[in-house]
Each structure stands twice: as structure tokens, then as C-alpha cells.
Amino acid sequence: MNTCFAPCPVVFDLDGTLIDSAPDIHATVNVVLRQRNVPPLTLDQVRGFIGGGVDLLWRRVIAATGLPVEAHRDMVAAFMARYEDANALTRLYPNVADALSVLADRGYPLGICTNKPLGPTRAILDHFGITGLFGAIIGGDSMPQKKPDAAPLRAAFTGLGADPHSPKGVYVGDSEFDAECAANTAVPFLLYTRGYRKTPIGQMLHTANFDDYGQLPLLVEETVAIS
Fold first, then answer.
1. Which residues, 6 or more positions from 129, have their beta carbon under 8 angstroms from its beta carbon?
2. Any catalytic annotation for residue 24?
3. 55 is in an annotated binding site
4. 15 among the known binding-site residues?
5. What's the gap between Cα 19 and its chain centre?
6. Fewest CB atoms within 10 Å of the CB: 5, 173, 190, 219?
7. Per the annotation, does 13 bind a ligand?
8. What angle (nearest 5°) sits at the alpha carbon of residue 49, between those of residues 43 and 54?
């Protein structure tokens, strides 16, 4: 049994886990496409492209729209110029704020590990007034590696005081990238089922799953107890 000295760090993915940001990402993608006179994509299409970071998002957009691959750099630059301020349509998932407050009040160190670039990550956390809850924030451009590589998640746990070589803690996410990252880091993974995953729940490697953040504090305590 792995001992996790209480309170354990709890690290969260962001898009599709704490926030439903797909509507803003969708709107921003279509603004950039419109500048190229390219027909807009649907919300469902763009939602399916989220998870691997901005570069992968735009590789998928370019493939879906038939744009030349050489347009990638310019499209990413145009997108990033608008992305940090794209928060009008983004929402916290229900009960997220309460769950984070409960975990923080119980002494759990909280962190973020996301493939979203660090600038927009901090901007959206500031927008919702929750930045101060997180003792470590790792974005998709914080280091050379991105999820599902273990390095970003290890960095988040290390920033919260965990052993950098064998971190103990819990990762909360919604996607295949998150599940693989947790497995690569050898930490329990709690799957939020109302996010952006494409794979059936039963086919994803996870310790437990939940669809309501009201369930999360108890689920964390149960997961820590058996870790």
C-alpha cells in the first residue's frame, strides 16, 4: 500500500473538468476561420478537438476544414491573440466552487495541470476568482512536455510538496489525455463524466468516476484512504 501523508495533494485538469470552456473556444476558432472565409465549425466538432493543447486543436481544425497545413502557425497566432480574453461563454461546472472550498478547508493542497496555455489558464481562474485556491498551476506551455506525458503532472504535485520522483496524490480530469497522464504518473484518477471525453466510461482507466462535484470531497477522502 502506498502511504499518502494526509492531506494529499489534489490536482485538477481545467477544460472539461472544472470549466465548460468549449463555447468560448468554439466562438474564437470560428472568428479566426471567418477571417479566412472558411465556413464555421459546429460546437460539437470543436468540443471533440479539445484536450491536447492549442497546437493539436488547430491541427484538427485544419484537417476538418481543408486548410493548408502551412496555415497552422498563422492560425494559432490569430487564435492566441483572442484566447486569453475569451471568457464570456465559459462556466464553472455546477458545484465546482463549493467542492474546491470544501477540499481547501479540509487542508488538501490544490493544483492545476492542464494542456491549456498558462496565460489563458490564469486569466480564466482570475475571472472566476479561484486562482488563490491553487498552490501550483502548470499550463500546456509551462514545460516542454504536455499531457499525457507524466512530467507536467509530476511538476504540479512537486509544487504542492509531493516527492518529485514518486508523487502521491489524486488527479481529477475528464479526458483520455488525463487518464493516460495519471496512469503514467502512477496516481489515482477520478473521472468527471460530464466533460469532453470521447471514450465510454467503462473503457477508460480510472479509480472512480462522478458526475456531480457535490460528490467529490467524499470521493477524494475514500480514494486517499485506499491509496
1. none
2. no
3. no
4. yes
5. 9
6. 5
7. yes
8. 115
